[in-house]
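User: Hi! I have a protein structure encoded as tokens and I'd like to know what sequence might fold into it. I'm fairly new to this, so please keep things simple.
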């Protein structure tokens, strides 16, 4: 992994997020229900973040174990849908 990434605030946030969701009491539906309470600009920022995450999960150059394969395949389907409907987001 690129050393610059590990020293970035985005990496630190990703690691904090990793710890927050690695808890059986974390409820993704409750998290999603909180999105409408965000400022519209922040909702768009969250959407861009989610799109980038989907792009990474769809990347065929990464190795996926059996636990991640369903997410990988679903992410590829989402990316294909976006491509077919004029929202082309090139994979790395």
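Assistant: Happy to help. Inverse folding works backwards from shape to sequence: for each of the 92 positions I chose a residue that suits the local structure. Here it is:
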């Amino acid at each position: 992994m690129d050393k610059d990434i590990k020293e970035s605030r985005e990496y630190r946030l990703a690691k904090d997020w990793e710890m927050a969701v690695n808890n059986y009491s974390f409820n993704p539906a409750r998290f999603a229900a909180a999105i409408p309470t965000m400022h519209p600009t922040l909702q768009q920022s969250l959407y861009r973040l989610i799109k980038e995450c989907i792009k990474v999960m769809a990347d065929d150059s990464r190795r996926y174990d059996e636990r991640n394969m369903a997410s990988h395949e679903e992410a590829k389907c989402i990316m294909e849908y976006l491509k077919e409907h004029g929202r082309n987001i090139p994979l790395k």
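A useful reference point when you look it over: Helices lie at 3-6, 9-21, 28-33, 40-58, 66-84. Feel free to ask if any position seems puzzling.
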